[in-house]
Write a structure and sequence with these properties.
5 helices, globular
């Protein structure tokens, strides 16, 4: 998995605490992937990585907001229309 249970707990704490803590957890989690010589580090790799994280964040926000798009968009700090566009892009249900 992307984050172990202890990393997940640390991540949650870091997110509540500071930007630097959040970045440290992400760096620790992503370093093995980024250092893997068998994975080409091209534009597709980084696009897939960022879009995958974006999709995951949207899914989590929608779940926490009980599918309320306005509340989810506030959690993410984006406009509701931007959220809807990204949901469509990632094939996420709006229901």
């Amino acid at each position: 998995p992307f984050l172990s249970m202890s990393q997940n707990a640390g991540f949650a704490s870091a997110v509540r605490g500071s930007k630097e803590g959040c970045e440290a957890i992400l760096k620790k989690s992503l370093t093995p992937l980024l250092n893997d010589p068998t994975i080409p580090k091209d534009a597709a790799f980084f696009k897939n990585l960022t879009s995958g994280l974006d999709k995951l964040l949207i899914e989590v926000a929608l779940e926490k907001a009980r599918k309320n798009q306005l509340e989810a968009s506030k959690m993410l700090g984006i406009n509701r229309n931007t959220l809807r566009k990204r949901m469509k892009l990632y094939g996420l249900s709006s229901e």
